[in-house]
Amino acid sequence: MSAAATVAMPKAKRRFRTGTIVLAVAGILFLTMVILVNTVDAFGDNTWLRVFFSVSALNFTLRASVPLILGALCGILCERTGIVNIGIEGMMLAGAFAAFVAKVSTNHWPLMGSLLFGVVIALAVGALMGLLHGVMSIRYKMDQIISGTVLIILAAGVTAYLFDRNAVAEGKFSAVAIPGLAQIPVVGEVIFQNPPITYAALILVVVVHYGLFYTRWGLRSRACGEHPRAADTVGINVNRYRYFNTMIGGSLAGLAGGFLVLEAVGQFQEGMTAGRGFIALAAMIFGNWMPFGAAGAAVLFGYTQALQNELLLAGVTAVPRQFVSMIPYIVTIVAVSGFVGRVRAPAAEGKVYETEGGSE
């Protein structure tokens, strides 16, 4: 490790701790306002406070955040091992279409069985998209940005060509209330009364964090993204880890697309991911390639989408609707551009690795 890196590490840690404290304080203040607005009439009667702090805004925030969280986790798993993945959007769209086809094909099944089959197919197709990205990036040493772009174009073209506009998926996941916890005021309504994929996304944040930072697999994965030559020296098959993590990440992106069809919208629409893959990529960067940080960023971006929805529902006409619709994307651009230089990507990200013998 260089002297400059050694000096920079304490500063990075101080910035991380300061940022964590600021976010914790902001979170406490925000939660306080939410409780006040939803329990005290004097606050709840204010239109602007309802727009920003109502339970409906928080519910919409969580729904909007789920595909972003799953997409960001996909990016983390890929890039922590050194594979740049801007193809999250394509993986999501392919997963959404696969889930739709699976659901339509099994409409005659019992509803839960049909929905679970759709989830499995979305995971499988996402994993296949991840494998394709891995083959192009590792086997054929294609520029990883180009490879990700190919995935996006491929998914957009194939789904638009094969989509049957007369097909209808019957039914979607409904909310499952967790006994006891669902009765907690405000928090219970938002967190503990949700459909299965939403719960799965929140659990996966913890699982991925634990896996990356507290298991042998995680240590080896991060070694492949930071110093692949050193990892290879101690017997770690770098490219095998890259293939595996890219497939697992792709499956999560596929699940994000499946969420849109099986839990959120209930049907498939051409281009229905609508840039969510790119916002998930921004959440990953904003969260410094950390699962909890990326999840927090995804919730922030989801909240901006909720504000857009709440402003329109509240009939706010002082601001043109087009400008209101721009809010999530403007916040994404500002957030990421403001953090350039303050976050550090894995050192070997985007770099093709070849063993001493030159084979995979």
* Molecular shape: globular
Please trace the helix and strand order, writing H or E for each element. HHHHHHHEHEHHHHHHHH
CATH class term? Mainly Alpha
What's the number of domains? 1
Helix content: over 70%
Point out poorly predicted stretches.
Answer: 1-9
Spatially, the strands of the biggest sheet line up as: 1-2
Major sheet, described briefly? 2 strands, antiparallel
Quote the CATH topology: ABC transporter involved in vitamin B12 uptake, BtuC
**How many angstroms separate the termini?**
27 Å
Annotated CATH architecture: Orthogonal Bundle
Calculate the mean pLDDT score and round it.
Answer: 88
Number of helix segments? 16
Number of strands: 2
Percent strand: under 5%
Rounded radius of gyration (Å)? 21 Å
Oligomer: single chain
Structural class: mainly alpha
Task: Please explain how this structure is put together.
It is a single chain. The chain is mostly helical and 360 residues long. The chain has one domain: Orthogonal Bundle (ABC transporter involved in vitamin B12 uptake, BtuC). Helices cover 72% and strands 1% of the residues. The protein has 16 helices and 2 strands. It has a two-stranded antiparallel sheet with strand order 1-2. Helix 4 packs antiparallel against helix 14 (291-313) and helix 6 packs antiparallel against helix 12. The chain is globular and about 70 Å long. Mean pLDDT is 88; it is low at 1-9.
